[in-house]
Write a structure and sequence with these properties.
The complex is a heterodimer. Chain A is of the alpha/beta class. Chain A has nine helices and ten strands. Chain A has helices spanning about 10-25, 40-50, 70-85, 90-95, 115-125, 190-200, 260-270, 275-280, 290-295, and strands at about 30-35, 60-65, 85-90, 130, 145-150, 180, 210-215, 220-225, 235-240, 255. The radius of gyration of chain A is 19 Å and the shape is globular. The two termini of chain A are about 35 Å apart. By secondary structure, chain B is α+β, with helices and mostly antiparallel strands. Helices cover about 20% and strands about 35% of the residues of chain B. In chain B, a hairpin with a 2-residue loop joins strand 17 and strand 18 (about 360-370). The longest helix of chain B has 18 residues, at about 170-185. The chains are: A alpha/beta, B alpha+beta. Chains A and B meet through helix 1, helix 2 and helix 6 of A and helix 1, helix 3, helix 5, strand 2 and strand 3 of B.
Chain lengths: ~300, ~425
């Protein structure tokens, strides 16, 4: 440290902590979106570090599609209990029951999360919502600001973004509008794994390789569970897989892997040739601009 | 990993081993081969994934392109792909065993000056491309000027498409000399000029065998080796207080810590500090992080500073050394780049200003001149600044700014201008 150099991981951590503190100091009602996925786990860890020894000064919220991996929900509840933060759950099932949203015929609930998220934001009057999205994930994300303005319909307008200079983030909004804040903007998948390793952050078991019963759908391996049953003609077989991302159990595929420790995952991620969304997410395959379209509607 | 080694120690080591971060901004138009160059850097450093490549190849083939258009990698928005133009700053990431790189890829056209300024504001290095067949054009000079205005510490001029001029040394030398002459007028601290062919790969990752007359490094080698640690200001201790941490718990009843990111300089426990604007002095009792206390803090670390005395310190205040203080002033002279399509900056206009962690209001007292970014001509008759225009402006703020000249300190010399009616960021200011 004597030459005042720090590693890039330490620089990314310092940047993220700065962003958390900036929001806490300037926004009225922030909330951290927490799903139990690895990026949101890292986010909660960073939030704790940003305000220590004080507690995290905002609640966390899970937009719950009801189609989660059971172990991820267990993890979520344990983590929240350890941290002492307040957990709010915005339930998609509840919104379907109330008739607020309609379940799509294919049963996937990714897209109908958005109105549920927006409704909860309005109910609790959140003006800043932290998300774990990273710019390396997707082309539309690569152009999104760290402080991303959303109008009172929750919409992102990619052509009319606030210029973002130095570390001078503009989080000003009128009532009803929001800022989506992305402290991990400059992190890559590998950075997230390295950080999890260096900070010894515990993760849900789904991230580690294990033998699972799977079906092959268009080259993607889906684990058979309460949400995925083999269709007619599909063969169920056993494969050693892990999850690179954890979204809804209905549309998140696993990858073949033998990595059972963080170190092995880091080695695997460093050598991989396919992006994590490309490898594992049915929701991004729809069109060239699938993510941009969802973001315009208010999605993270 | 052996059983005797705990994961913590093992991973600690790997964290320290990971490399330094270099942020660079690229400027140039599609015609200069910028996208091809970025595509090649990503491809050759294996940061480009197979599915990204497949997607680009499919779109390119579908449009009937003769070759795979690497610009599709960076043009992320629907309208960009439809119109074949780059609208906004795109961020790209790659790493080599030496460093991690963040590329701010900015479009080159004059109507996107604001994006160039945005990308350059955080860059350690600016990469400017010219086409060897065309030589310096108006746009190259504008990019160089903006990078010097934003005090990007290092600049690389890539003379691209050398394959199309038969790798001719004289062509390269002429462009190099012309640019160097221009650069001396701009006060660019470190300039490197490299002849490359992004398409063929000459001097991008590996030294080119086609240009034995060129003795310098390849572009990637330069990006890996350029010395950036001393670019930070480690002399003037400046700590803008971002947030006050008060746990209100029985364990930490009297805890009061000042959270923030070190803007410049080095701070150590025991250092005497002055709190501005109040002017009270105290000593640093400890510098804390969630991982425990540390012996010194320097940029860009985010830390929590505790003082020996109970003082009234809040967000927007600044800690500094008694013998080395920033300017405390309500009268601000600045170069302002205007970024708003809707309304120009006008004399007597009132705006919100964000500077370090401080929010103030400001009124424009005077527009002294507007600068032509292509010719550097000063139009002293100007009374307003329109979108993408840059000019020298006098502001009066409601509260004093605790600031330094931008030349000396990027962190305490820059500010943004915000429209109070709709909260949009409408300008960037550089204190002179």
């Amino acid at each position: 440290m004597s030459d005042y150099r720090i590693s890039h991981i330490a620089a990314l951590e310092a940047e993220a902590i700065f962003i958390f503190r900036e929001v806490a100091a300037t926004c009225q009602r922030p909330v951290l979106l927490f799903s139990g996925g690895k990026d949101s786990i890292v986010m909660l860890h960073l939030a704790q570090k940003a305000f220590a020894p004080a507690p995290v000064p905002f609640p966390v919220m899970h937009v719950d599609t009801g189609q989660n991996f059971a172990e991820v929900i267990d993890y979520r509840d344990r983590r929240v209990a350890d941290t002492g933060v307040q957990l709010l759950v915005a339930s998609v099932q509840d919104a379907i029951d109330r008739g607020m949203v309609t379940e799509p015929p294919d049963g996937t609930r990714n897209r109908i999360q958005t109105p549920v998220l927006l409704e909860a934001a309005e109910k609790y009057q959140f003006d800043a919502l932290f998300g774990g999205a990273r710019r390396d994930e997707e082309k539309a994300r690569a152009k999104e600001r760290v402080f991303s303005f959303r109008d009172d319909f929750g919409q992102w307008d990619p052509k009319n973004q606030r210029p973002e200079l130095w570390n001078l983030y503009n989080g000003r909004v009128h009532p009803g509008e929001q800022i989506r804040v992305f402290p991990l903007s400059n992190w890559t998948e590998l950075d997230v794994w390295r950080y999890i390793g260096s900070e010894s952050i515990p993760l849900p078991e789904v991230y580690f390789a294990a033998e699972r019963e799977v079906v092959d759908r268009g080259g993607m391996l889906y684990a058979v569970n309460e949400f995925i049953s083999p269709r007619e003609g599909e063969r169920v077989f056993t494969e050693t897989i892990r999850y690179r991302t954890v979204g809804d159990a209905t549309l998140t595929a696993g990858v073949r892997s033998d990595a059972t420790t963080i170190e092995e995952i880091i080695a695997e991620v460093a050598a991989t040739r396919v992006t994590e969304r490309g490898a594992t997410r049915g929701d991004d395959k729809t069109s060239e601009a699938a993510m941009e379209d969802r973001k315009r509607e208010g999605y993270f | 990993m052996t059983d005797t080694m705990s994961p913590r120690e093992d991973s600690r080591a790997s964290r320290e081993d990971t490399h330094e971060l270099l942020r660079f901004a690229t400027a140039g138009s599609v015609d200069d081969g910028k996208s091809t160059l970025i595509g090649r850097l990503l491809f050759d450093s294996k940061a480009l994934f197979d599915d990204q490549w497949d997607a680009v190849e499919a779109v390119s083939a579908g449009r009937g392109d003769e070759y795979t258009d690497l610009a599709l990698l960076t043009d992320g928005l629907r309208s960009e792909r439809e119109q074949g133009i780059t609208i906004d700053v795109a961020y790209r990431y790659f790493s080599t065993p030496e460093r991690k790189f963040i590329i701010a890829d900015t479009p080159g056209h004059i109507q996107y000056t604001r994006n160039m300024v945005t990308g350059a504001s955080t860059a350690d290095l600016a990469l400017i491309l010219v086409d060897a067949r065309k030589g310096l054009v108006e746009q190259s000079r504008r990019h160089a000027f903006l990078c010097s205005l934003l005090r990007v510490p290092h600049m690389v001029l890539c003379v691209n498409k050398m394959d199309l001029v038969d790798y001719d040394e004289a062509t390269f030398k002429q462009i190099e000399n012309e640019f160097s002459a221009f650069a001396t007028k701009l006060d660019i601290p470190d300039l490197t000029v490299i002849p490359i062919s992004a398409l063929k790969g000459d001097n991008v990752v590996n030294r080119s065998e086609n240009m034995p007359w060129f003795q310098g490094p390849s572009l990637l080698h330069h990006l890996e080796k350029v010395h950036i640690a001393s670019d930070r200001n480690l002399v003037d201790a400046r700590f803008p207080v971002q947030h006050v941490i008060r746990p209100h718990s029985s364990d930490n009843h009297d805890y009061r810590g000042y959270a923030g990111q070190v803007a410049s300089g080095v701070m150590k426990p025991g250092d005497e500090v002055t709190v501005l604007p109040s002017g009270f002095t105290s000593r640093i009792a400890s510098i804390e992080t969630a991982d425990g206390p540390i012996e010194e803090a320097f940029p860009p670390l985010s830390v929590t500073v505790r003082l020996e005395d109970e003082l009234d310190v809040s967000r927007g205040d600044m800690l500094c050394r008694p013998g080395n203080q920033p300017r405390v002033s309500q009268d601000i002279e600045a170069m302002v780049c205007w970024m708003d399509e809707a309304r120009p900056l006008r004399v007597r206009g009132k705006y919100a200003v964000k500077h370090t962690t401080s929010d103030v209001r400001a009124i424009v007292k005077d527009v002294q001149y507007q600068l032509d970014v292509n010719t550097l001509h000063r139009d002293e008759g100007a009374t307003e600044l329109r979108l993408n225009e840059i000019g020298r402006v006098t502001l009066r703020t409601t509260k004093p700014l605790l600031c330094d000249d931008y030349r000396r300190n990027r962190a305490t010399g820059g500010f943004i201008v915000i429209d109070e009616a709709d909260n949009r960021t409408v300008g960037a200011g550089i204190i002179v």
